[in-house]
Amino acid sequence: MDLDVVNMFVIAGGTLAIPILAFVASFLLWPSALIRIYYWYWRRTLGMQVRYVHHEDYQFCYSFRGRPGHKPSILMLHGFSAHKDMWLSVVKFLPKNLHLVCVDMPGHEGTTRSSLDDLSIDGQVKRIHQFVECLKLNKKPFHLVGTSMGGQVAGVYAAYYPSDVSSLCLVCPADSLLLRLECSGAIMAHCSLDFPGSSNSCASATQVAEITGLQYSTDNQFVQRLKELQGSAAVEKIPLIPSTPEEMSEMLQLCSYVRFKVPQQILQGLVDVRIPHNNFYRKLFLEIVSEKSRYSLHQNMDKIKVPTQIIWGKQDQVLDVSGADMLAKSIANCQVELLENCGHSVVMERPRKTAKLIIDFLASVHNTDNNKKLD
Questions:
Q1: What angle do CA 251, 174, 99 make, to 5 degrees?
Q2: Are 98 and 71 in contact (CB under 8 A)?
Q3: Using an 8 Å Cβ cutoff, are 337 and 350 in contact?
Q4: Would you give the distance in Å from CA 44 to the centre of its chain?
């Protein structure tokens, strides 16, 4: 074989080996960096651009695709301890002609984190309204989507700012978590919060159920985990705030009906990304289960007047699926979609189905509005 040909193969092999070795090294040594690169690449592939906007000295970070048009823009609010990129799996299945905006919630990822910030649900609603005003997103009513904590914020936002919102989608909103945990009595002992009437007694759970009209089972995996921590005063052991790969694996199993096989290194990377923020997450968790926040959606759901869609996983182990029926009874124009073989992480477990439900719902609302105009 000609020496030049040999040299060519050596150079080609070396060129291929470098990125492969870099990938392996990143996977083994810096998995958190690999995760960040993954999200960057996914955003780029889907055409999502990251931007920053300021309200006075407060910074919001968001990603977007498309421009405002004749169809409503869609604003998407993520859940507790997540970030704007959690929506990418759903964005993948949404039409490219829609104007999409995914924002980092207060204190999360690229949005300002301040010790002076009001992290209550009301406080977060006010911040999101500032973001909407900065983007002038409410020049025309938009479709608001929120999941878990973001769903709670979205519901209260629609109640407080009805003229901003054309329609609403709540994906297992977090308010029902607080009712469920109060029934179990676990939050009071676990977080040293004073919830009047809370205990592990059947009488207390019955009283809460009578008030709310809901019947919660209190022996699900999440509540069992909190009961195990009862009396330990171990706030750092909240199941939704993992600090080790093992705890991360447990959280993923808790939040998902589908059992994802996640390599140990990826689990380590996910933990490495979260650990610097865990103190903030603990503070936020205590804030949203405080008396100021825990009933915020329930207190305002009868004020929601826009067409509303509720999406919930039937096998949700964090938020009881019966919360969907409660919301449907209190919100005038509401439809419920319950997903089989799906847990709390609806967006991650059933992204294609979630996107289709949102698209179909928007189409039905948009067509109804057009028909009214014709009449």
A1: 100
A2: yes
A3: no
A4: 21
Tens of pLDDT along the chain (375 residues) come to 554 544 444 454 555 444 444 444 444 445 677 888 989 999 999 999 999 999 999 999 999 999 999 999 999 999 999 999 999 999 999 999 999 999 999 999 999 999 999 999 999 999 999 999 999 999 999 999 999 999 999 999 999 999 999 999 999 998 755 444 444 444 334 344 443 333 333 334 444 444 444 444 444 555 555 555 544 455 667 889 999 999 999 999 999 998 878 888 889 989 999 999 999 999 999 898 888 888 899 899 999 999 999 999 999 999 889 899 989 999 999 999 999 999 999 999 999 999 999 999 999 998 766 555 544
Pair 79, 147: CB distance under 8 Å: yes
At 345, list the tokens. 């992480």
Determine how many CB atoms are found less than 10 A away from the CB of residue 296.
Answer: 23
User: What is the CA angle 39-354-272, rounded to 5?
Assistant: 30
Which positions are annotated as active-site residues?
148, 316, 344
Place of tokens 């998902």: 256
> Quick check: helix, strand or coil at residue 231?
coil
Place of tokens 């002609």: 97
Tell me if 74 sits within 8 A of 143, measured CB to CB: yes
For residues 242 and 81, give the distance between their C-alpha atoms in angstroms, rounded to a whole number. Answer: 11
What does R_g of the chain's alpha carbons equal in angstroms? 22
Which structure tokens are listed for 227?
């009961």
In the chain, the amino acid numbered 187 is: I
Q: Write down the pTM of the prediction.
A: 0.82
67: Cα separation from own chain's centroid:
24
Go through the chain and tell me how many residues it has: 375
Cα 212 to its chain centre, rounded Å, is 24
Are the CB atoms for 72 and 362 separated by under 8 Å? yes
Q: What is the DSSP string of 236-302?
A: GG-TTS--SHHHHHHHHHHH-SS-----HHHHHHHHHHHGGGHHHHHHHHHHHTSTTTTTHHHHHGG
Q: Judging by beta carbons within 10 Å of its beta carbon (0-12, 13-18, 19+), is residue 39 exposed, middle or buried?
A: middle
Report how far residue 47's alpha carbon sits from residue 186's, in angstroms, rounded to the nearest whole number.
44
